[in-house]
Design goal:
Number of strands: 13
CATH class of the largest domain: Alpha Beta
CATH superfamily of the largest domain: Glycogen Phosphorylase B
CATH architecture of the largest domain: 3-Layer(aba) Sandwich
Shape: globular
Strand order of the largest sheet: 3-2-1-4-5-6-7
Number of helices: 17
Number of domains: 2
CATH topology of the largest domain: Rossmann fold
Largest sheet: 7 strands, parallel
Oligomer: single chain
Order of helices and strands: EHHEEHHEEHHEHEHEHHEHEHEHEHEHHH
Length: about 375
Amino acid sequence: MNIGLSCTVWAGCERAGHLDGIGVYTRSLWQAMEALKQSEAPGITIKPYAFGRNLPELACGVPKTLSTDFRIQVLASGLLSLPLPNSSAIARDVDIVHASDHQIPRISGVPVIATVMDAIPLIHPEWIRQNLKTLKGWLFARSVHSADHLITISEHSKHDLVTHMGIAPEKISVTPLGVDPVYFERIPLETRDAVLDKHQLKPGFFLFIGTLQPRKNLPKVLEAFNALPESVRKEHPLIVVGRDGWANEDLIPQLKVLEEKGEGRWLSYLPQSDVFALLQSASALVFASLYEGFGLPVIEAFAAQCPVIASNTTSLPEVTGNAAWGVDPLDAASISAAMLDVLSNDALRTERIEIGLERARQFTWEECARHTLAVYRKVLAAHPKA
């Protein structure tokens, strides 16, 4: 089986020097597929493809070009239902194409599988970048419907795709994400302390991880944190790790005030090795997101034996089970109460760390790859080549 892996976002992450959630998904899926190729699936070959010019070399090789400009292709596909001009060449090269990100090609002569993490552009357009959002939402829906089959990452996301986009349930497969095994490794104390010293931190802080964008709900987390007693805020500051996103005009000044008061830090983007050290030093990860298709930082925190405070909405209960402090993301008092409980309830904290660690072991990229390969085979059986 020759698989065309469309990895445009991964390529963009490589250029930018950091991986976002989709970049992690694509790279991890490829790595797990390669591992399966060496053992239980020797008949597969993965060939990278991407939109863009002068594509960078990835771990899987330099991608072949789908089209030099995705914007032109998505307009031609959405408005005129036109496939890629090089469809014939792609169909000769691969048996199936998997678009691992939201940049879904329309290709004639070969089935296309698309991973759609969530339906946020249609359900909550107010949370996405505001330039041309109506057109983007319409084109997103058109491209999703053009795929032969969809993969999503939680039952909640599948429900949203069925309910809000009218996708037939049988056209959607759920393949939960995995956690990188390195998150389970304990960092030597001297290494951890060196990272903390570099950022002028000491263990016991609250940790927020995520791009600064509306659905991550950092303003409500700040409201909850500011409601804590001053002594708690000084002893357990709020450390924010995440790149500046959009719609943050009122948020950035709040982060500056937090730093001025000595009650927190905004560290922007950090390398993965630093994130490991922070997860193994924090009192808790505070993940009160308004919407998640899965919530990968949650299981990464579980693997690192970091307590987790997480929203009790959207997909997060599927991932957390009973291992996290579940909170109402719209209620600052709910988040504050959980933060205080993490600090004061030692027995429950120990119990949930153990449950979380076991929970994390249930999510592997190898299992994600097995489920994905099963989808490929199912789709190919329904679309035999002429």
